[in-house]
Design a protein that fits this description.
By secondary structure, the chain is an alpha/beta fold. The chain is built from 20 helices and 11 strands.
């Protein structure tokens, strides 16, 4: 049920939740988990009025906090990895584009079955736009899923590829940097205590030295790190990531890592205070976001440079105390590739398109809805069709942009369909957790990470 107004929302919570000042007391956790949370998240996403949506979002976040489900920074775990006190696993960073509440529940079920605590939920700057999910909505969907499934542990929410677009920067650098900073601010307020800064788009390979090539990259990364440190809540050290090579470009080198870190740390020191730097570094080793579709719609095989990934991860840990290197664009790799990430000391691997593919390509996905989405793309995304693209290639590359316009239709799929799709996703999450060796990491996560209870004043309608 979607509550259309504040009065109905309050009535729906009677006997389950009580507002006490800036907090919520949970009177009936069983009813909250079994029925009310479903109504709250649908209200948070689809209620017609912003006031009602804001109230539902606040109730989700504070009721979850009341029973010990809180957003957290993974910084403590990554510092332990940098010191060599935690190793042997690679943290999956999961981008959920569609059916976020159902998909996150599938993640938590797989995590509970395997004792997984080292996992990140993330959404990129571009995904926020085309999936029509602002950070606070994403936070609430994931938090509600944790509450619904009975998961207990820190929630690692991450801004992925908070990227400075090269074309927009060239046209108006101040406006583009300001847009990314505004997004960082919004994300932190929503409980994203892990932020991946991506200024690697500004690397200029025409410059004569590697350090000059990385200059704009490291200077802006340091500037945004300083801003993040100013904004982070009391008791929280946000985990910040940097990037030295744009995904889909040339492979990164250890020399580039040294050049970036040298300039980055120099720039941070000029601030006059001892600011904590990045905890990980994203690199390019041969992948492309989403994979490269062939004429029949299948994905071209990728030759991933694991040797380079291993060298970069080792240098990041040994020389700079970071958790290691981060691999992007990995979800469309063959399953057998994922065993190699822990073996090479990769700190984190980002996974997105593969989960979208499971939903779209499932025999359980209603063909009539798929047709509606594809017809929409033919009209609205026609300009993105490249000369020579087959229809399969066109749909594969653009169908992510059908998720936002059809968000309500996806959430309103029959329960039997959503259950079947969730089961397929859960099986893939379970496989990835096993391959990345993150089973039984909940204990070490709890030892290294203590989530802060960040105050969240109620919206006016509930105050």
């Amino acid at each position: 049920m979607i509550c259309d107004n504040i009065d109905l929302l309050k009535k729906t919570t009677e006997g389950v939740l009580t507002i006490e000042g800036n907090d919520v007391r949970v009177q009936d956790e069983k009813r909250l988990r079994e029925t009310l949370i479903d109504d709250l998240i649908r209200t948070a996403v689809f209620a017609p009025g912003e006031e009602t949506r804001a109230a539902a979002r606040w109730l989700i976040r504070r009721s979850a906090a009341a029973i010990g489900i809180r957003s957290a920074s993974i910084q403590g775990l990554y510092e332990a990895m940098g010191r060599g006190e935690a190793s042997g696993f690679t943290v999956p960073a999961i981008n959920i584009r569609a059916l976020t509440y159902d998909s996150a529940r599938a993640v938590f079920r797989a995590a509970q079955a395997s004792g997984t605590g080292a996992m990140i939920f993330e959404i990129a700057r571009s995904e926020i736009d085309y999936t029509r999910q602002r950070p606070v909505e994403y936070t609430c969907a994931v938090t509600a899923a944790a509450l619904k499934t009975g998961y207990r542990g820190p929630l690692f929410l991450q801004g992925d590829h908070f990227q400075v677009g090269a074309k927009k920067f060239a046209k108006d650098p101040d406006a583009e940097v300001r847009a990314v900073k505004d997004l960082i601010w919004e994300a932190i307020e929503a409980g994203f205590y892990n932020i991946d800064i991506d200024t690697s788009t500004l690397v200029d390979l025409s410059e004569e030295t590697v350090k000059k090539q990385q200059r704009l990259n490291y200077s802006l990364a340091a500037e945004m790190t300083t801003m993040i440190r100013d904004l982070e809540p009391a008791g929280v050290t946000i985990s910040v990531g940097g990037e030295i090579g744009e995904v889909g470009g040339k492979n990164s080198t250890v020399e580039e890592l040294h050049a970036f870190m040298e300039g980055y740390l120099e720039t941070l020191r000029k601030s006059g205070t001892a600011l904590k730097g990045i905890s990980k570094i994203s690199v390019q080793t041969g992948t492309t976001h989403g994979g490269v579709p062939l004429a029949d719609g299948s994905i071209a095989k990728v030759k991933l440079d694991f040797d380079t990934l291993q060298r970069l991860s080792q240098a990041a840990r040994v020389e700079y105390g970071m958790a290691g290197a981060v691999q992007h664009g990995a979800s469309t790799l063959p399953d057998e590739a994922f065993d190699r990430f822990p073996a090479t000391g990769t700190a984190e691997v980002h996974l997105a398109t593969g989960f979208q593919n499971i939903i779209y390509d499932s025999r359980n996905f209603p063909p009539e809805l798929r047709t509606q989405i594809y017809d929409y793309l033919k009209r609205e995304a026609a300009a993105e069709r490249k000369e020579g693209d087959t229809e399969e290639q066109f749909f594969y590359k653009t169908r992510k942009k059908g998720i936002g316009p059809f968000k309500r239709e996806l959430w309103d799929l029959p329960k039997t369909v959503r259950t079947a799709l969730s089961a397929e996703l859960e099986a893939q999450f379970a496989l990835l957790f096993r391959k990345l060796n993150v089973g039984n990491t909940l204990d070490i996560v709890n030892r290294c990470v203590t989530p802060a209870d960040v105050p969240l004043p109620p919206p006016a309608g509930l105050a």
